[in-house]
Amino acid sequence: MAQLVRSHSSHWGAYETTVENDTVTSVRPFAGDVDPSPILGNIASTVRHRSRIAQPMVRTGWLEHGPVPDSCRGSDKYVPVSWPELTDLLSRELRRVIDTYGNRSIYAGSYGWASAGRFHHAQSQVHRFLNVLGGYVSSVNSYSNGAGEVILDRVTGSMRSVLATRSTSWQQIVEHTDLLVAFGGVPLKNSAVSPGGQSFHGVSSHLRNGKERGTEYVLFSPLRDDLPDYVDATWNPLVPGTDVAVMLGLAHTLASEGLHDRAFLASHCHGYDRFERYLLGDDDGQPKDADWAEAISQIPSEEIRSLARKMVAGRTMINVSWSLQRADHGEQPVWMGLTLAAMLGQIGLPGGGFGFGYGSMGSIGEGQLPFSVPSFSQGHNAVDDFIPVARVADMLLNPGRPFDYDGKTLTYPEIKLVYWAGGNPFHHHQDLSRLRKAIAQAETVVVHDPFWTAMAKHADIVVPSTISLERDDLGASYSDPVMIAMKKAVEPFESSRNDFDTFSDLSEALGVHAAFTEGRGADEWIRHLYESWRSKVTPYVPDIPEFDVFWEDGYLDLPYSDQSTVAFSSFRADPIASPLRTPSGKIDIYSDSIASFDYDDCIAHPVWYEPKEWPGSVIASQFPLQLVANNPSTRLHSQLDPGTYSQASKIKGREPARMHPDDAASRGIAEGDVVKLFNERGSCLAGVRISRNVRPGVIQLSTGAWFDPLDPTDPNSMCVHGNPNVLTFDQGTSRLGQGCAGQLALVQVERFDGELPPILAYDPPVVSAAD
Ligand code: PGD
Questions:
Q1: pLDDT tens digits, one per residue of 690-725
Q2: 331 — alpha (psi -120 to 50), left (phi > 0) or beta?
Q3: Beta strands 683-690 and 744-751, pairing class
Q4: pLDDT of amino acid 539
Q5: In which element (H, E) is residue 98 found?
Q6: What is the dihedral of CA 368, 372, 376, 380, to 10 degrees?
Q7: What are 204-251's pLDDT values in tens digits?
Q8: Which ligand 1 atom sits nearest the alpha carbon of residue 113?
Q9: What pLDDT does residue 166 have?
Q10: Which amino acid residue places its CA nearest to atom 46 of ligand 1?
Q11: DSSP labels for 629-690?
């Protein structure tokens, strides 16, 4: 029996796989990964899963009625077509749309994590292809940290250069931090994942090492397991969405007891005095003190006061997780966390200051390469229209409508064709009923995906892509010290193809083949990307082998930065010589630019705003539980949900939802029951896990269960599987950031005693014979 061993890279870790007779028989973590992700347990079972797309498909309604808005998307049948037919039909449709409406009518913001691999990266492929055709409407920011990115760019100059790739390293935290105050925790499930891949998972051991050296951990989260047991954190189970109130209460204690670092605030920050007026209640008569914070967050005021005093007594790191800013007014916890750290005066010191997203992704706080990794150029986009990524449904439903974003007034373009590759909006977007109505507005929807996701089932033209195990590629990430020769392990499923090959054929049919391919096939591109990268980095690292040697070896160890990074250190040392890229050159606690925008939902300094949905809302009497729709632990987003490990967590086939025993008892709900979660936007079924690790009044249902409407013809239909985005609201975080606010919503929950509908999410749609 022929046996192959292949190394591979994935967002959930590097691994080695054994293949026998074109079947993946085992998957092993990369040697040296001390804490590999259990998500690897999903891989073998998904490679040939029935949810794979076997061949190109076209929606019957689109063939019958032509390219028109159609609410049958999501409930229609499909007709299989050959690859030449697909190329002909899709190239003619692209030509029609461009000639009739122009490139501004194509949306290919196409958000999504797709797969690891530097060449076959789906977004790079689709963007390059559409760029050679004249461009497309694009998207900016991410669903992960959109609000945080916009606010940090404004008040620190650059989120990426100051905090994402230049965060204080874990080693500095382990060695120096006395107190880690983690708003949103440092959840290991998220640090298992890093875009582009990671050959090791270090966060668990960093937390342990810190604990052993003496770091004290304080957790603010409605979920106790947002920090692992072994760090023995003090758990403050606050009301979800009230972190800013707690931070203000801490800040008030510092200010009123004279514990804040006035010298640092004067030398390194802009506008503290104006913020302090708000903090002390000088203008509105309401001091934002610990008693005020207790009334909002339900964290005892004495806890808040004593924590503030402890924060000044040693080296303190304040971490704000990305989940906090995926909520209404998500800019505020990030800005206020930074402001609180500024008041402590430890920004720029080893192990002290502010962190954004430790635990939100594995790469935050790890080392980095001193150079970039190979990448496939996307070319130039001649269309300058764009949207903040999470405003996609708004755009499709409101063509021509103006909207605010980061100080600009933009206008939603009129989109006729939606082109998606490498993402699943039915995973990442909020209010799925609204999303379905939005998708119905387009004349044509094209989706490339290896799997029949809900987005593929809403497409008019479905293009079956390979998975990364079915192609050669380069595995590399700026935050990982190993480059991996990702050699094809198995043959492509049925007639699925690499996105590059699909786009090559389309570009041929559209007369732009030379511009798209530059005369190279996939193998030549991979070699070219590697060699041109090698020539760029050779002056720094002379002994990088040529491509054939690397490919034969299978791995390449790359130089990794040491663990000495301290965020803001040069700015701290000399704020005049190393100013931040803000208008003041300092940390803007008061932002003159934001003040000039005159937004009512994001004023010039950090502020506590009541969330759109929280226990203080009028609708809380009807929908009293707070849904926490966080990222899952058994898969990456919706990827690998059909896999063995993810499936093992389901209850009667439904996604598990965790709730406190008191909330379950008062509703007559027992462990393992199926429940219905509902609000005014929609409903879904889930299986109950009862846990004291969840704050009373909260129900946690992670994202990623494939959307499974009971009646696919009804846009408001219940999801029988447990996708929480049927319940979340589709509204930007604020007029400034316009980020995704999908983390929190109000719901009611009741036991579901009806006959359990079957799970059909992983079944392909009905396919009619081609006529
Ligand atoms: P994935 O499930 O990773 O979700 O949203 P995202 O769209 O990234 O989707 C990737 C898709 O790419 C999958 O369908 C996969 O099959 C496909 N794919 C993989 N490889 C290839 C390939 O080679 N070619 C092609 N064509 N396709 C490929 C993630 C987003 O969701 C993120 S990042 C976050 S942080 C958000 N989090 C939340 C949240 O906390 N709460 C809510 N309610 N909602 C969220 N949504 C956001």
A1: 999 999 999 999 999 999 999 999 999 999 999 999
A2: alpha
A3: unpaired
A4: 85
A5: helix 83-101
A6: 120
A7: 999 999 999 999 999 999 999 999 999 999 999 999 999 999 999 999
A8: 8
A9: 83
A10: 428
A11: ----SSSBTTBTTTSHHHHHT-BTTBPEEEE-HHHHHTTT--TT-EEEEE-SS-EEEEEEEE
Per DSSP, 163 falls in state I
CA of residue 447 to ligand 1 center, whole Å: 13
Contact (CB, 8 A) for 390 and 109: no
Mutational test site, ligand 1, from 468, 637, 701, max ligand atoms within 8 Å of CB:
637
- 408-422 tens-digit pLDDT: 999 999 999 999 999
What are the 10-residue block averages of pLDDT along the chain, 771 residues in total? 88 97 96 94 98 98 98 98 98 98 97 97 98 98 97 92 81 98 97 93 97 98 98 98 99 98 98 98 98 98 98 98 98 98 98 96 92 95 98 98 98 98 98 98 98 98 98 95 97 98 98 98 98 93 94 94 90 96 97 98 98 98 98 98 98 98 98 98 98 98 98 97 98 98 98 98 91 58
Return the H-helix or E-strand segment holding 270. Answer: strand 269-270
As annotated, the active-site residues are 111, 113
**pLDDT tens for residues 457-512?**
999 999 999 999 999 999 999 999 999 999 999 999 999 999 999 999 999 999 99
Pocket test for ligand 1, best of 740, 743, 746 (most atoms within 8 A of CB): 740
User: How many Å is the Cα radius of gyration of the chain?
Assistant: 26
751 three-state secondary structure: strand
> What's this model's pTM, rounded to 2 decimal places?
0.97
The residues that bridge with 627 in the sheet, in sequence order, are 699, 745
**Burial (0-12, 13-18, 19+ Cβ within 10 Å), 86:** buried
Q: Which residue has the tokens 């797969």?
A: 115
Judge residue 375's burial from the number of C-beta atoms within 10 Å of its C-beta, 0-12 exposed, 13-18 middle, 19 or more buried.
middle
Residue carrying structure tokens 């932002």: 591
Ligand 1 interacting residues, C-beta cut-off 6 A: 111-115, 120, 122, 143-144, 326, 421-424, 427-428, 448-451, 453, 465, 499, 629-631, 636-639, 703, 724-725, 728, 740, 742-743
401 class by beta-carbon count within 10 Å (0-12 exposed, 13-18 middle, 19+ buried): exposed
Cα 698 to Cα 680: distance, rounded to the nearest angstrom = 18
Tokens of 714: 């009804």
Question: What separation in Å is there between the alpha carbon of 143 and the centre of ligand 1?
Answer: 9
Pocket test for ligand 1, best of 12, 449, 646 (most atoms within 8 A of CB): 449
Residue whose token pair is 């060699």: 531
CA of 213 to the centre of ligand 1 (A): 38
Residue 538, CA distances (Å) to 152, 533, 731 in order = 34, 9, 48
For residue 448, which atom of ligand 1 is closest to its CA? 26
Helix (H, G, I), strand (E, B) or coil at 529: helix
Residues 6+ apart with CB under 8 A from 509: 87, 88, 91
The one-character DSSP state at 162 is: I
